[in-house]
Amino acid sequence: AALKLFSERGLAATTVDEIVAVADVAKGTFFNYFRSKEEIFAFFIEIQLSKVAEAVEEAQKGKRSIRDVLHRAFGRLGEEVGGSANLARALVASILSNEAACETVGAGMADGRRLLGEILHLGQKRGQVRSDRSLSAMSLAFQQALFGAIVLWGIRPESKLATVLDAAFRDYWKCIAAAKRESK
Question: Coil, helix or strand for 89?
């Protein structure tokens, strides 16, 4: 409910009273979970981090290639905007316009890079991910590709978000994939 209101009105113009009315919960219930409306971003980040943690577990099992694990995570992380260009724009604007939201999201993104690094490290050990780039640089590039795709799609939503995310991931993968061995 909060994300929907943020997409319609922005973070600053949305009140807790409006959020609880749309969510059909008591104001006290809201404050049992959040100290402020900005803390909703912490919940949003937890959801996103759980998706990356699931990808780490999937990579550790070794049943799928690292490329497939990362591609699936890329799509799942992008789906949170729900295919709404308005929500994509509102989330970005709400985060960037509020210091508390920036700090919350920034800390969550740092945790996300650490988790992505675990996946990429497994990829390096398996010879699927290049080893001449740092894990931190490749993790950051993942986030940049993902958020860049979402922001650009939010500005010009001419294609489906899933199509834009697939194209962005393909480009990202080309930059981090280990070179194929040449046959003699």
Answer: helix
